[in-house]
Amino acid sequence: MGQEEIVNAILADAEEDARKIVAQAEEAAAAVRQAAESEAEKLIAETQAQTAMRAKAIADGKAATARLDGAKILLAEKRRVIASVYARAYEQLLALGEKECLALYGRLLEEYAREGDEIVIAPNFRYRAALEKLAVVLKKKLKIVPEGTAEGGFFLRGKNADVDLTYAALLAQDREEHQSEIAYAIFR
Fold this sequence. Notes:
Strand content: 5-15%
Mean pLDDT: 89
Order of helices and strands: HHEHHEEEH
Shape: rod-shaped
Structural class: alpha+beta
Number of helices: 5
Low-confidence stretches: none
Distance between the termini: 110 Å
Largest sheet: 4 strands, mixed
Radius of gyration: 46 Å
Helix content: over 70%
Protein backbone atom coordinates (compact mmCIF):
# COMPACT_ATOMS: atom_id res chain seq x y z
CA MET A 1 0.00 0.00 0.00
CA GLY A 2 1.23 3.30 -0.94
CA GLN A 3 1.56 6.41 1.04
CA GLU A 4 -1.38 7.96 -0.70
CA GLU A 5 -3.56 4.98 0.03
CA ILE A 6 -2.56 5.09 3.68
CA VAL A 7 -3.37 8.80 3.83
CA ASN A 8 -6.69 8.17 2.08
CA ALA A 9 -7.45 5.31 4.49
CA ILE A 10 -6.55 7.51 7.47
CA LEU A 11 -8.66 10.34 6.04
CA ALA A 12 -11.54 7.96 5.37
CA ASP A 13 -11.27 6.61 8.93
CA ALA A 14 -11.07 10.17 10.27
CA GLU A 15 -14.10 11.19 8.22
CA GLU A 16 -15.97 8.13 9.43
CA ASP A 17 -14.98 8.92 13.05
CA ALA A 18 -15.97 12.55 12.50
CA ARG A 19 -19.37 11.48 11.09
CA LYS A 20 -19.86 9.18 14.12
CA ILE A 21 -18.82 11.96 16.51
CA VAL A 22 -21.12 14.44 14.71
CA ALA A 23 -23.96 11.87 14.76
CA GLN A 24 -23.38 11.22 18.46
CA ALA A 25 -23.20 14.95 19.13
CA GLU A 26 -26.42 15.48 17.17
CA GLU A 27 -28.09 12.64 19.11
CA ALA A 28 -26.82 14.08 22.39
CA ALA A 29 -27.95 17.55 21.33
CA ALA A 30 -31.35 16.15 20.33
CA ALA A 31 -31.62 14.35 23.70
CA VAL A 32 -30.61 17.54 25.55
CA ARG A 33 -33.05 19.57 23.42
CA GLN A 34 -35.82 16.99 24.08
CA ALA A 35 -35.07 17.03 27.84
CA ALA A 36 -35.04 20.84 27.84
CA GLU A 37 -38.32 21.00 25.92
CA SER A 38 -39.84 18.42 28.27
CA GLU A 39 -38.61 20.38 31.31
CA ALA A 40 -39.87 23.62 29.75
CA GLU A 41 -43.30 22.07 29.09
CA LYS A 42 -43.38 20.80 32.67
CA LEU A 43 -42.43 24.26 34.01
CA ILE A 44 -44.99 25.90 31.73
CA ALA A 45 -47.70 23.51 32.96
CA GLU A 46 -46.72 24.11 36.61
CA THR A 47 -46.64 27.87 36.06
CA GLN A 48 -50.02 27.79 34.32
CA ALA A 49 -51.46 25.71 37.17
CA GLN A 50 -50.02 28.11 39.78
CA THR A 51 -51.26 31.09 37.79
CA ALA A 52 -54.72 29.54 37.53
CA MET A 53 -54.75 28.85 41.29
CA ARG A 54 -53.60 32.40 42.05
CA ALA A 55 -56.15 33.85 39.64
CA LYS A 56 -58.88 31.74 41.28
CA ALA A 57 -57.73 32.83 44.73
CA ILE A 58 -57.76 36.47 43.64
CA ALA A 59 -61.18 36.05 42.03
CA ASP A 60 -62.50 34.25 45.11
CA GLY A 61 -61.07 37.01 47.32
CA LYS A 62 -62.65 39.71 45.18
CA ALA A 63 -65.94 37.80 45.15
CA ALA A 64 -65.82 37.47 48.94
CA THR A 65 -65.03 41.17 49.25
CA ALA A 66 -67.89 41.99 46.91
CA ARG A 67 -70.26 39.79 48.93
CA LEU A 68 -69.08 41.42 52.15
CA ASP A 69 -69.47 44.91 50.67
CA GLY A 70 -72.93 43.96 49.42
CA ALA A 71 -73.87 42.66 52.86
CA LYS A 72 -72.60 45.88 54.46
CA ILE A 73 -74.65 47.98 52.05
CA LEU A 74 -77.72 45.85 52.70
CA LEU A 75 -77.22 46.06 56.46
CA ALA A 76 -76.82 49.84 56.27
CA GLU A 77 -80.01 50.06 54.24
CA LYS A 78 -81.86 47.83 56.70
CA ARG A 79 -80.66 50.01 59.57
CA ARG A 80 -81.78 53.12 57.69
CA VAL A 81 -85.25 51.63 57.12
CA ILE A 82 -85.56 50.57 60.76
CA ALA A 83 -84.39 54.02 61.90
CA SER A 84 -87.05 55.49 59.63
CA VAL A 85 -89.70 53.23 61.19
CA TYR A 86 -88.70 54.38 64.68
CA ALA A 87 -88.54 58.03 63.60
CA ARG A 88 -92.11 57.74 62.31
CA ALA A 89 -93.16 56.04 65.56
CA TYR A 90 -91.60 58.92 67.50
CA GLU A 91 -93.47 61.47 65.40
CA GLN A 92 -96.72 59.56 65.96
CA LEU A 93 -96.12 59.52 69.72
CA LEU A 94 -95.55 63.27 69.67
CA ALA A 95 -98.81 63.69 67.74
CA LEU A 96 -100.93 61.69 70.21
CA GLY A 97 -104.18 63.33 71.18
CA GLU A 98 -105.06 64.00 74.81
CA LYS A 99 -106.96 60.75 75.35
CA GLU A 100 -104.23 58.50 73.87
CA CYS A 101 -101.43 60.45 75.56
CA LEU A 102 -103.04 60.25 79.00
CA ALA A 103 -103.83 56.56 78.52
CA LEU A 104 -100.13 55.92 77.72
CA TYR A 105 -98.95 58.01 80.68
CA GLY A 106 -101.41 56.21 82.94
CA ARG A 107 -100.13 52.77 81.92
CA LEU A 108 -96.51 53.86 82.37
CA LEU A 109 -97.23 55.39 85.79
CA GLU A 110 -99.10 52.27 86.93
CA GLU A 111 -96.12 50.11 85.98
CA TYR A 112 -93.15 52.26 87.01
CA ALA A 113 -94.21 54.90 89.56
CA ARG A 114 -93.76 54.38 93.28
CA GLU A 115 -95.71 56.27 95.89
CA GLY A 116 -94.46 59.83 96.27
CA ASP A 117 -92.43 59.92 93.04
CA GLU A 118 -92.19 63.10 91.02
CA ILE A 119 -93.32 63.20 87.39
CA VAL A 120 -90.88 65.52 85.62
CA ILE A 121 -92.56 66.85 82.47
CA ALA A 122 -91.70 69.50 79.92
CA PRO A 123 -92.90 72.97 80.98
CA ASN A 124 -95.02 73.20 77.82
CA PHE A 125 -96.80 69.83 78.32
CA ARG A 126 -100.30 70.43 76.92
CA TYR A 127 -102.22 68.01 79.11
CA ARG A 128 -100.84 68.86 82.56
CA ALA A 129 -104.22 69.64 84.09
CA ALA A 130 -105.70 66.35 82.88
CA LEU A 131 -102.56 64.46 84.01
CA GLU A 132 -102.98 65.80 87.56
CA LYS A 133 -106.48 64.27 87.62
CA LEU A 134 -105.46 60.74 86.57
CA ALA A 135 -106.46 58.13 89.14
CA VAL A 136 -102.93 56.70 89.33
CA VAL A 137 -101.48 60.15 90.10
CA LEU A 138 -103.93 60.60 92.95
CA LYS A 139 -103.64 57.01 94.20
CA LYS A 140 -99.81 56.99 94.30
CA LYS A 141 -99.61 60.61 95.51
CA LEU A 142 -97.41 61.63 92.61
CA LYS A 143 -96.19 65.19 92.23
CA ILE A 144 -95.95 66.86 88.82
CA VAL A 145 -92.82 68.97 88.26
CA PRO A 146 -92.73 71.03 85.02
CA GLU A 147 -88.96 71.32 84.66
CA GLY A 148 -88.09 68.56 82.24
CA THR A 149 -86.63 69.10 78.83
CA ALA A 150 -88.07 66.02 77.18
CA GLU A 151 -90.04 66.72 74.05
CA GLY A 152 -92.32 63.76 74.71
CA GLY A 153 -92.80 61.50 77.67
CA PHE A 154 -91.48 62.17 81.16
CA PHE A 155 -88.99 61.22 83.86
CA LEU A 156 -89.92 59.68 87.17
CA ARG A 157 -87.79 61.00 90.00
CA GLY A 158 -87.97 58.69 92.96
CA LYS A 159 -86.44 58.34 96.38
CA ASN A 160 -84.16 55.50 95.30
CA ALA A 161 -83.97 55.77 91.51
CA ASP A 162 -85.02 57.78 88.52
CA VAL A 163 -86.75 56.26 85.50
CA ASP A 164 -86.48 57.69 82.00
CA LEU A 165 -89.87 57.30 80.35
CA THR A 166 -89.34 59.77 77.54
CA TYR A 167 -90.55 58.71 74.12
CA ALA A 168 -86.96 58.55 72.91
CA ALA A 169 -85.98 56.21 75.78
CA LEU A 170 -89.07 54.04 75.34
CA LEU A 171 -88.42 53.68 71.61
CA ALA A 172 -84.72 52.98 72.17
CA GLN A 173 -85.64 50.18 74.58
CA ASP A 174 -88.22 48.81 72.16
CA ARG A 175 -85.72 48.95 69.32
CA GLU A 176 -83.13 47.06 71.36
CA GLU A 177 -85.66 44.36 72.20
CA HIS A 178 -87.44 44.04 68.84
CA GLN A 179 -85.08 45.23 66.11
CA SER A 180 -84.28 41.74 64.81
CA GLU A 181 -87.99 40.80 64.70
CA ILE A 182 -88.81 44.00 62.84
CA ALA A 183 -85.96 43.47 60.40
CA TYR A 184 -87.16 39.92 59.79
CA ALA A 185 -90.73 41.08 59.21
CA ILE A 186 -89.66 43.81 56.82
CA PHE A 187 -86.89 42.00 54.92
CA ARG A 188 -87.75 38.29 54.98
